[in-house]
Amino acid sequence: MTDHRPPPPEPEGCLILSRVSTYKGGTLLAEDVHDLATHLQRLAARDPYRPSECPHCHGRVLHVHDYPERTPHGEPGLPPVITIVRFICADASCGATWRILPAFLARHLWRVWPTVERTVSAPPPPPPPPPAPIPKPIPKPIPKRTAGRWRARLAASARQLVLLLAASGGVLLAEIAKETGLEGTRRELVDVHAQRTVAPPGRRLADLATLVHRLERGLRLM
Predict the structure, then answer these.
(1) Which of 40, 100, 202, 208 has the most other CB atoms within 10 Å of its CB?
(2) Cα-based distances in Å from 17 to 14, 33, 73, 161, 219
(3) Prediction pTM value
């Protein structure tokens, strides 16, 4: 960056702690599942969600372990409870469990990525389509404290994420890292990534968060 502004604040510790070498099992993101209908189709089929191998021990056999539930808040059109699937490695010496999360569900937030994006965007995206004739409960507004925390996280330093993209070996990601710069904020990284990858509205945060998780499991965008 060349505008001589003060450096952005450091991100919260929970956003920058990697778990690749310290945690057996965890979350795998289904990077091409961006809506509930596709998720339900995958869930019914089971095998399309089954990993080809255990990321921990590289064992080739994983069994369905259970069906945890996520309870995203405040997104019109989504049910109050979304079922996901978790697999367990069949190797007795490993036993790692892996939950499969569709890309529209944020790993560590109570809201889905489209809700978060609408909240932190300026100007906001177009309003959602008119509600169906059957009355539906009106989602509760995002608490000011929650919205403020999201905005503060996006205003924090993106240095760790910029270095991660720069070291990824990908030409496009290296260019995104260079354009953002070591003094860039996470919001600036989101903007550059969305512009360079032509991310559609509603997926600007989700796509980058998914990429970060793929490159270094445990690091978080926000």
Answers:
(1) 208
(2) 6, 26, 26, 12, 6
(3) 0.67
Residue 123 confidence (pLDDT):
61
Quick one: which of 108, 99, 88 has its CA closest to 218? 108
| Distance, CA of 81 to chain centre | 18
Compute the residue count for the chain.
Answer: 222
CB-based contacts of 60, cutoff 8 Å, min separation 6: 52, 53, 54
Q: 202's torsion region: left (phi>0), alpha (psi -120 to 50) or beta?
A: left
Positions of the chain with pLDDT under 50: 1-2
Q: How far apart are CA 55 and CA 29, in angstroms?
A: 12
Phi, psi (degrees; rounded to nearest 5) at 74: 75, 20
